[in-house]
C-alpha cells in the first residue's frame, strides 16, 4: 500500500483546507477513502453518530499536483483509513502559506498520514514542518460499510433558501426548541416549523425551485404524478441541522435537499470540485 | 402569507395591532430591559409600556409611544398580558441580529385578547415568519411610588460619561454607592471590591453634566450591584440619563433612547436601596 500526494498551488491548498475544516466540524472521526481519481470523507450512519451519515467527494485532480496511489491489491486499488479530521485540519493550519504540502502514508509506531509543509523562510533553505497524523487502516472486508450511499427514493427535492437566512432562522429556533420540522413541496415552497409549549414558529420560503431529476435520479414514482402542493416533511434534531449549516466554509454553488417523508432529510451541497452529502434521520 | 394580504376577518378579531417597518425599533429597546424572562405588557392609546421586575427590588420599564409604530390600533382602553421576553426577543430577531444597512425585518404584532397567544408576523426579503407566543395573565407591576415631589436630588448627564464607568464597575463589590451633594464631590459612583475602593466623580460644572439639582443635604445611598449592573444595557443605547433619588433613598434612572430612525423612546429603572444590617 502506498500513497503520496503533493499540493503546490496556494489556491488549491486553501480550498482543500476549507473542505477539511468543514468535515472536521461535522464529525470527530471519519473514514478517508483514497482512489486514483478521488478522495472521500465518509461517515456511515451508525447509532454512535446519532444516525447521521456524510459523504464528501473531491476529485483529486483539482487539488493535487502529484498523486500516486497503490491500493490494497491490484483489483482493489483503494485505501481506506480511519482518521480524526481535526488532526488533519490542525496540520493544514500550520501549512497555510506553504510553498508546497506533501502528504504520504507512512508507518511510524503506527500507520500515519505524514504531512510535510515547506514554509517560506528568509534564508535560502526552506523550513519544513512535519505532522504525523495517526490513522487506522481499514481492512478490505469492512469496506462495504463505507459504500457510496444510494440516492434515497425521495418524495420531494428542492433547492435550499439562501444559507445565511436559513442559518439565522435555525440558530434562533434552536434557542426555542430541540426539534424542528422541515417540509417542502414540488412547488418550490419550504417551511421550517417548531412547536413547543411556549411558542410555535413557522418560517415560509417560496419560489425556491425544484431540481429537475431526470435520467440520473433513481426515482421510481415520477415527480410529475405527485400533487405539487403536497408537503413532504422530516422532523429532525435542530442541533444536527445547525451543525451542518454552521460548519460550511465552502460556499456551495448549489445547495438542495431531498426529503423522504418522515424518514430522511438528505442535504446536498455541490461545488465545482467538491460534493458534500449529509443524511439526517427523521425522528417521530 | 405576506403581511399585507392578511384577511380582513383576521384583522377584525385583534384587539391590539402594532406594526413597524423595522423590528429593531422594538427589539433593541426590549433588550435594554431584558433582565428576567418575563415581561408585562400594558398597551394603551398612548403606546406600549413593557415592564420587567427583579426580586421586588428593581423594576425596568420601556415606553414605546404609539407614534413610533407605522400602524397602532387598540380596541380597548388598556390591553395587558405577560410573555416570556427571551422567547419574544428570539422571535423578533429570527432573521438574525445583524445590522446590514438597508435590510430590515418588518413586524406586525397582533393580540386577540385574554387567553390568546401573541402573534407576530415578521418579514424580511420576501420570507415570512409567523410566531405564536403563549401569554399569561399579567401581574400587577409594583408601584415604586416615586413622585417628583419627593425627589431630593437630580442630575442629568450625557450617557457617554457614564458608559465607561458602568462598563468598568468592580463586580466584586456587592454594592454601588451613589453620592449626590451640593458640594464636592457633587456626583460620585463608588464601589468597594476585593482590590479596593473605586470612585467616579462628576463635577457639577463638567461638560457632561446637563443638569445638577441638589438640595441642601447630601445623600449617599447603596444599591445592590447585581440589580443595577443590567442597566448598563439601557445606558449603552441611550444618549442622556437622569439620576434621581428620593427621601427614602429610592433610585430612578431614566434613559433617553434614540431608535434607528432617530425617534425618541424612554427606558426607566427603579431600584430600592440596599438595607444593610448595622454591625454593632
TrEMBL record, chain A:
SUPFAM superfamilies: DNA clamp. GO terms for biological process: double-strand break repair via homologous recombination; meiotic DNA integrity checkpoint signaling; mitotic DNA replication checkpoint signaling; mitotic intra-S DNA damage checkpoint signaling; nucleotide-excision repair; response to radiation; telomere maintenance. The keyword Nucleus applies. Gene3D superfamilies: 3.70.10.10. Transmembrane segments: none annotated. InterPro entries: DNA_clamp_sf, HUS1, HUS1/Mec3. Component of the 9-1-1 cell-cycle checkpoint response complex that plays a major role in DNA repair. The 9-1-1 complex is recruited to DNA lesion upon damage by the RAD17-replication factor C (RFC) clamp loader complex. Acts then as a sliding clamp platform on DNA for several proteins involved in long-patch base excision repair (LP-BER). Belongs to the HUS1 family. Component of the toroidal 9-1-1 (RAD9-RAD1-HUS1) complex, composed of RAD9A, RAD1 and HUS1. The 9-1-1 complex associates with LIG1, POLB, FEN1, RAD17, HDAC1, RPA1 and RPA2. The 9-1-1 complex associates with the RAD17-RFC complex. HUS1 interacts with POLB, HDAC1, FEN1, PCNA and RAD9B. HUS1 does not interact with RAD17. Interacts with DNAJC7. This is Checkpoint protein.
Automatic annotation (TrEMBL), chain B:
InterPro entries: Cell_cycle_checkpoint_Rad1, DNA_clamp_sf, Rad1_Rec1_Rad17. GO terms for cellular component: checkpoint clamp complex. GO terms for biological process: DNA damage checkpoint signaling; DNA repair. Its main location: nucleus. Keywords: DNA damage, DNA repair, Nucleus. Transmembrane segments: none annotated. It comes from the Eukaryota. It is found in: Nucleus. Belongs to the rad1 family. Component of the 9-1-1 cell-cycle checkpoint response complex that plays a major role in DNA repair. The 9-1-1 complex is recruited to DNA lesion upon damage by the RAD17-replication factor C (RFC) clamp loader complex. Acts then as a sliding clamp platform on DNA for several proteins involved in long-patch base excision repair (LP-BER). Component of the toroidal 9-1-1 (RAD9-RAD1-HUS1) complex, composed of RAD9A, RAD1 and HUS1. The 9-1-1 complex associates with LIG1, POLB, FEN1, RAD17, HDAC1, RPA1 and RPA2. The 9-1-1 complex associates with the RAD17-RFC complex. RAD1 interacts with POLB, FEN1, HUS1, HUS1B, RAD9A and RAD9B. Interacts with DNAJC7. Interacts with RHNO1; interaction is direct. This is Cell cycle checkpoint protein RAD1. It comes from Cyprinus carpio.
